[in-house]
From TrEMBL:
SMART domains: HDc. It comes from Pseudooceanicola albus. Residues 30-134 form the HD domain. CDD domains: HDc. InterPro entries: HD/PDEase_dom (IPR003607), HD_domain (IPR006674). This is HD domain-containing protein.
Length: 215
């Protein structure tokens, strides 16, 4: 796996710490997710620039602390991951300045944390991670996670929630309206915005097509 990343020695050192336990992995947050986020980041970096070492470390460690979606501490997960990453990088001999750069990118990547990204690397990581929730992969992730939680694909008689409150915990399709369809609007980089527009269009085509098919 580490060979798929640049700086393979760094990737080899960090990957064992990417998740706090095997139970913290799910079909949307696993090693494949890290690789997809990195590939998104590379595409953005090719146009926008950025420090490869900082961004690679932040990418590999951005999910290193797992907090369940329904837990009251959910909004603190990225701060907790940043703290754990800081400890790890400090033990590896990273400078305080570089460690702080990685930590900020990690804490600012989270949607629920609502921490504005200040550095270019933080902006790139936030965009790269959010891009993985869009497009066809976004559809696959949404359905997989909803199924794992026991949610139905959609409401039986009102799938588009025209005459009922949205309930993303009960219906996967509701999550498109509550979050996914608007997710691409907050991209931080120009390249991220371009990529998000294409993937958001794919997401919209799936959503509209499914609604049309089921009536």
């Amino acid at each position: 796996m580490h060979a798929q990343f640049p700086l393979p020695d760094l990737a080899r050192a960090l990957l064992p710490h990417a998740f706090d336990s095997r139970d913290s992995r799910d079909s949307a947050h696993d090693e494949a997710h890290l690789l997809r986020v990195w590939r998104n980041a590379q595409k953005i970096m090719a146009q926008e620039g950025g420090d490869t070492r900082i961004l690679l470390a932040a990418t590999l460690l951005h999910d290193c602390v797992h907090v369940d979606k329904g837990a009251p501490e959910r909004s603190l997960a990225s701060r907790m991951a940043a703290a754990r990453a800081s400890d790890l990088l400090g033990e590896m001999g990273w400078s305080a300045a570089d460690t702080a750069q990685v930590a900020h990118a990690i804490e600012a990547h989270s949607f629920s944390a609502q921490i504005p990204p200040q550095s270019l690397e933080a902006k790139i990581l936030q965009d790269a991670d959010r891009l993985d929730a869009l497009g066809y992969m976004g559809v696959a992730r949404c359905l997989a996670l909803s199924g794992a939680r026991g949610a139905a694909i959609c409401h039986a008689t009102d799938p588009g929630a025209l005459n009922r409150p949205l309930d993303e915990d009960a219906f996967a399709l509701d999550h498109f309206q509550t979050k996914l369809l608007g997710f691409g609007k907050g991209m931080q980089t120009e390249t991220g915005r371009t990529m998000a527009a294409a993937r958001s269009a794919d997401l919209r085509r799936f959503y509209d097509g499914l609604l049309a098919e089921i009536g």
